[in-house]
Write a structure and sequence with these properties.
heterodimer, A: mainly alpha, B: two-stranded parallel sheet, 11% strand
Chain lengths: 104, 208
Amino acid sequence: MTDAPDPVFTEPWHAQVFALTVHLNEAGHFDWPEWASCFGATLKKNGLSKELDGGDDYFTAWLETLEQFLASKDLADLRDVAEMRNAWERAYLSTPHGAPVTLE
Amino acid sequence: MPHDDPDHPHSLLPPDPALRVKALETILTRKGLIDPAALDVIIDTYENKIGPRNGAHVVARAWSDPAFKTALLEDATAVVSEMGYYGRQGEHMVAVENTADVHNMVVCTLCSCYPWPLLGIPPGWYKSDAYRARAVREPRAVLADFGVTLPEDTAVRVWDSTAEVRYLVIPERPAGSDGMDEAALMDLVTRDSMIGTGLALPVEGSAP
């Protein structure tokens, strides 16, 4: 039967980006239909070049939508996000394995 | 603590999207727009507390209690909220009942709208382009892929979920389940049967 317990989220970041979006919605930063319509548009665009399988590509589209969405609402600037992403990368690369990773 | 494997002198670098999510989190936390602890609560809820057992509970009760079923078909949102099943993506829920004449099936052609409080997070196939495109166009072929063959004269009705309205299919109660209590009935209700891509499980020892 197909009801075997699939993991809800297959990657930790899937869960994180999902929770982040739900949390922002619950905090009143946007309503869900608005989000769904933007997300639907991204899925449609990404689905033009290849058939999406609903796994990693689904959450990739989710993240892409959220980044654009938050930028359009002046909640998180795209350049700031890119810089912060690189700061986290540097932090991971300069932290010894096993130690907690923190930003400088 | 230094690591003893020279091939991994530093922490394992998460994949690019994980770093981007972390970046968003950091920025929004610093702006005071989100509470990181709330994120953990949301993840725990969806990973551990919300899932198809909620929907199965609703279906089992509908099978057992005709008055409940009538109320459910009239105003599902109110009825399931009373059972404690409400929240995100459950603001307006509609229950549709499978009978010998009609088989209902649910899709979201826009993205992946789904009754989270009743069924949890949708499975990968529900979110795939293949299912979203084909469910409306050729529902019987999709059902066949799921191993479901319906009698010729059973109509198939496909419901397209939206961000406003989400559907729960009440599958047909399996033959031989008379007299079973709610808990036993719940075990017959699969996730797919509540999306309409499956049927409730047959009762062991009874003819299908």
